[in-house]
Design brief:
Helix 3 packs antiparallel against helix 9, helix 4 packs parallel to helix 7 (110-124) and helix 7 (110-124) packs antiparallel against helix 8. The chain contains nine helices and no strands. By secondary structure, it is mainly α. The protein is globular and about 50 Å long. The chain has two domains: 15-55, no CATH class; 62-166, Up-down Bundle (AhpD-like), CATH 1.20.1290.10.
Amino acid sequence: MNARLALIDPARATGPQKQLLDAVQAKLGLVPHLTRALANSPAALKSYLDFGAALADTSLSARQREQIALAVAEVNACGYCLSAHTLIGGKLGLKQEQLLDARRGLADDAKTAAILKLAQRIVLERGHVKDADLRAARDAGVTDGELAETVAVVALNLFTNYFNHVAATPIDFPEVKPGVPAALTR
């Protein structure tokens, strides 16, 4: 499928589009198709970049945030996000089995596993999680602050999953297809 939104060429961008895409290039060393498509609206791209930057200051580690991204992308069958976050997670030291486990809502430690299960429940229940879901997370040592941060990381990833579905963003990372065996599905 071809992209349904234009991919803004950073070399031809002007004004706010150019400033934002130049910032992405400076930070990442490349301008992914997601950010090129989001640049159709500088406000949408800026909100994505600002939200992501704010979440870098959570008590959740970068690895945990990538694991949440993988769990959410698997539930939402977002091939673009699975591809991007598998690459990023690998660069953060997550092994292949850990990457696959994250897509299944599993992790090596009980606390991260509880966070991933909660993230899946948030997506599947559209935020209407049960008291038992929160109790299970708390029993595994997840604090109220980490619960709030988990919701925020899920929300950012819902935004990118849905945006990529609407835009049909072409995958510009090594492709990872949704459908890992034993993943939580509807």
